[in-house]
User: What shape does this take?
Amino acid sequence: MKSTIQSLDVSMLLHATEDSERVIAAVRGLIDADGTLETVEMEGHFGNSIKKVGVHLHGDQATKAFAALTARMPGGLRKELAKDIDKLVDEHSSLFLRLDKQKLVEGEIATGYEDAIRLKVKPRAFLMHGHAREFFVQQLKVG
Assistant: This one.
């Protein structure tokens, strides 16, 4: 597979009341990858346990994971993301997505902002030539 994505970072906060294994399994299923999870233990304002969990993929593994993610997205969501692409791509050509964590655990892929799974997708720079937005619209396969 030709590696079009340089890196894909996935991160989320897991609260003590959540079934961590179930959330992590849903995220792994979403990106179809077994990258090494990095976990940082934190403490909430009221002394509650919070874990920051992330995975960093690069090269072919990142490209495969992004393709798996877009293939699982409903067509309406891909169109919505393509329409809002100017808000989702930064000046360094990285795409930022926030997906609803609870809906993902239930098997649905939807954007979310409150308790989100955050994704940062960085394409290979040599492919961009200043056209990152068009690249990502093409990757979303919006017709």
